[in-house]
């Protein structure tokens, strides 16, 4: 059996100019990055502003397990299936982070016959967007420390610096560092921290900005520290905005590539969903809606993280209204939630399936709270039995969800026809009346309680005393009307990764709350979640290499 990278490397790619023709784009609408990838020009984005919007379809999933779910694979395969049905469709996805590529997950371009290509470029440096974001973030950090060194006119309290440096790599030793060691000219000695680039506020800002003007306004108001008087100090006060915007001038433009079946794919931005808002850029999604009749996008990890933030943060800020949601599950993952060991998942086990399907049930309930119709799809494995498939199908139909089997990993677009038809049927027969979960006017603590109890199923929310003080301060500073961005483990509905299925009666522990004023949300750290991941004992990097002929191997 060929690996994903072997399938991708053997694929026949069209020049990106040919792919663009399917969207009525010319070479003048593109800024080419080689033969197979391009950025979409600002002139073209303005030209399509008054086009009619297509239908917006969100792909999300149950909580991830070692058994695999295949959310991106399903997104790509669904887009390819629309193409096979003669529909004008675009896929709008996130860019992968280097951290997971070299850590546990490997690449993030889909899989099997449902991939976006060129996958090596996408998974590595692509068009340089993440490097630009990293540079802009660290420029702001350098200007902040330089300001203190050069006299500290703003009265910044070095003990209340909240801006962190970033790196797009899993590197646990950088979580807590000391900077400024040496002599007096080497800076003020203080504790500092790193986050992974995809958890940085600039990543969130880029993905939520409507255009360059909006980007600069957001950069300007990012809180980097607090003064001795307790007042917030923003990036604009450090005169950092213009230079950061210059570094992000090209990164703000969406990227265009293709799938294995040449379906157009707009790939832009990549915030993590467990510690950031987990969606591709607003610019990419809005452009796709003007370019196609059907737009397939996704939100990271399970629906408790990605979909909740897509609805309550991205849609709220951007004025988007999704028409349908595709909820991805696998029989293997459901049995894993039912207590079956990873090595035993291939055997039929209806008892474990019935026990574990409560995880899927909770995600269905959650999405329906937003008044958006749901289609459940099973990403098929060869070990799935007909009895298991029929059990899941009946379970979903009893909960007013259309159901479809997806075989896109094996068959590409052809294997997604059943799913595409189910989505089309849902779009034609069920109306979406989307509304966010909570009102802007709710106090921060009530918003946290709402998400924790309504979406996660927590019985109680426990705030650390420091978190309560932080909430009080943020509301006093005028940030109380912002939505909350919950940072939580992706492996469970709770903040404990070991609690599978549909845990009940648990406490949600809130340890820290801070504002991302540029991104316009309040970040809430729960449990033991880390904003800088570490590498596993045997990182994926061990398997990656380049042949003498320059061919990359071992990448996913």
- List the total number of helices: 20
Largest sheet: 12 strands, mixed
Radius of gyration: 23 Å
The global form is globular
Percentage of helical residues?
Answer: 25-40%
The percent range for strand residues is 15-25%
How many strand units?
25
Distance between the termini: 14 Å
Q: Which regions have little confidence, pLDDT < 50, spanning 5+ residues?
A: none
Mean pLDDT: 95
Q: Which structural category do the helix and sheet elements fall into?
A: alpha/beta
Descriptive notes:
Helices cover 35% and strands 20% of the residues. Strands 1, 2, 3, 4, 5, 6, 14, 15, 16, 17, 18 and 19 form a 12-stranded mixed β-sheet that branches. A 4-stranded mixed β-sheet has the order 20-22-23-21. Strands 7-12-13 form a 3-stranded antiparallel β-sheet, covered by helices on one side. Strand 22 and strand 23 form a beta hairpin. The model has no long low-confidence stretch (mean pLDDT 95).
Which properties best describe this structure?
556 residues; alpha/beta; four-stranded mixed sheet; twelve-stranded mixed sheet
């Amino acid at each position: 059996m060929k690996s994903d990278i072997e399938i991708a490397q053997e694929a026949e790619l069209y020049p990106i100019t040919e792919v663009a023709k399917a969207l009525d784009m010319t070479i003048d609408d593109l800024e080419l990055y080689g033969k197979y990838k391009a950025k979409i020009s600002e002139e073209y984005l303005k030209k399509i502003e008054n086009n009619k919007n297509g239908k917006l379809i969100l792909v999300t999933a149950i909580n991830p397990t070692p058994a695999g779910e295949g959310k991106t694979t399903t997104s790509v395969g669904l887009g390819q299936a629309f193409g096979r049905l003669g529909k004008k469709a675009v896929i709008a996805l996130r860019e992968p982070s280097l951290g997971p590529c070299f850590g546990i997950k490997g690449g993030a371009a889909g899989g099997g016959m449902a991939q976006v290509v060129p996958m090596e470029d996408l998974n590595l440096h692509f068009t340089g967007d993440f490097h630009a974001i990293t540079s802009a973030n660290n420029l702001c950090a350098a200007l902040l420390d330089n300001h203190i060194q050069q006299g500290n006119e703003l009265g910044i309290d070095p003990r209340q610096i909240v801006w962190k440096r970033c790196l797009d790599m899993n590197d646990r030793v950088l979580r807590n560092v000391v900077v400024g060691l040496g002599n007096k000219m080497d800076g003020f000695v203080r504790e500092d921290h790193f986050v992974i680039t995809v958890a940085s506020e600039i990543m969130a800002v880029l993905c939520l900005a409507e255009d360059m003007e909006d980007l600069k306004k957001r950069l300007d108001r990012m809180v980097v520290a607090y003064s001795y008087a307790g007042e917030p100090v923003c990036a604009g006060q450090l005169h950092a905005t213009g230079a950061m915007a210059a570094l992000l001038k090209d990164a703000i433009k969406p990227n265009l590539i293709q799938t294995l079946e040449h379906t157009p794919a707009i790939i832009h931005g990549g915030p993590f969903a467990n510690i950031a808002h987990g969606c591709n850029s607003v610019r990419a999604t809005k452009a796709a809606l003007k370019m196609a009749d059907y737009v397939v996008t996704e939100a990271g990890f399970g629906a408790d993280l990605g979909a909740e933030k897509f609805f309550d943060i991205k849609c709220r800020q951007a004025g988007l209204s999704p028409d349908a949601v595709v909820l991805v599950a696998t029989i293997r993952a459901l049995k894993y939630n039912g207590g079956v060991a990873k090595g035993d998942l291939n055997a039929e086990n209806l008892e474990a399936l019935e026990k574990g399907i409560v995880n899927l049930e909770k995600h269905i309930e959650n999405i329906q709270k937003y008044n958006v119709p749901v289609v459940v799809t099973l990403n098929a494995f060869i070990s799935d039995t007909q009895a298991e498939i029929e059990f899941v199908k009946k379970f979903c139909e009893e909960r007013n969800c259309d159901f479809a089997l997806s075989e896109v990993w094996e068959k590409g677009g052809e294997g997604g026809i059943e799913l595409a038809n189910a989505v089309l049927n849902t779009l034609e027969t069920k109306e979406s009346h989307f509304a966010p979960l909570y009102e802007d006017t709710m106090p921060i603590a009530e918003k946290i309680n709402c998400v924790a109890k309504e979406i996660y199923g927590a019985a109680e929310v426990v705030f650390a005393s420091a978190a309560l003080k932080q909430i009080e301060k943020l509301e006093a500073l005028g940030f109380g009307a912002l939505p909350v961005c919950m940072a939580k483990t992706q492996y469970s509905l709770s903040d404990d990764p070991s609690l599978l299925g549909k845990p009940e009666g648990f406490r949600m522990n809130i340890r820290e709350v801070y504002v991302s004023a540029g991104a316009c949300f309040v970040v809430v750290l729960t449990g033991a979640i880390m904003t800088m991941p570490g590498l596993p004992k045997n990182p994926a990097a061990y398997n990656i290499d380049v042949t003498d002929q320059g061919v990359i191997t071992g990448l996913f």
